[in-house]
Amino acid sequence: MAKNSGGRKLVAQNRKAFYDYAIEERFEAGLILEGSEVKSLREGRATITEAHAGEMSGDLWLFNAYIPEYGGANQFNHEVRRPRKLLMRRREISRLLGQVQRKGMTLVPLSVYFTPRGWAKVELGLAKGKQTHDKRAAIKDRDWKREKERVMREGHKGE
């Protein structure tokens, strides 16, 4: 588990989301968990790469997030890919769901972390899917920046 800025303890990160989607806005949501899920998250073994957020019966839920079973929980363990309810203000939820339905956007979890108070939170991104040519352009830009940094570094060593 890595420390993030602001005293956050980062549990899981969805780095693939930045490649597949153009993130337009970010939101923080609380996460309702069972006891064994919290213990498993504290061990830092969660995966949110295939996860997404969506609406179920008027509330916001996190679907397909993988939180493995906790070894010490025995028979009281949780289901590993169950839907988990997200906590946000009602006005924020309705605004997000409206944008998802109208504009064809997606809610993608970007990271799961613990606050300094010990609460589990999810950072959601309101995202639009990238086309293949956009992904290629992003790779090209990233490689160009990396090459430029390398040249600059080597240029300073020669002086």
From TrEMBL:
Keywords on record: Cytoplasm, RNA-binding
Localization (cell): Cytoplasm
UniProt main location, coarse: cytoplasm
Keyword field contains Glycosyltransferase: no
Domain of life of the organism encoding this protein: Bacteria
Region (Disordered): 131-159
PROSITE patterns associated with the record: SSRP (PS01317)
RNA-binding is among the record's keywords: yes
GO annotation, biological process: trans-translation; trans-translation-dependent protein tagging
Family stated for the protein in its record: Belongs to the SmpB family.
PANTHER family, alphabetized: SSRA-BINDING PROTEIN, TMRNA-BINDING COMPONENT OF TRANS-TRANSLATION TAGGING COMPLEX
HAMAP family: SmpB (MF_00023)
Designated name of the protein: SsrA-binding protein
Species whose genome carries this gene: Marinimicrococcus flavescens
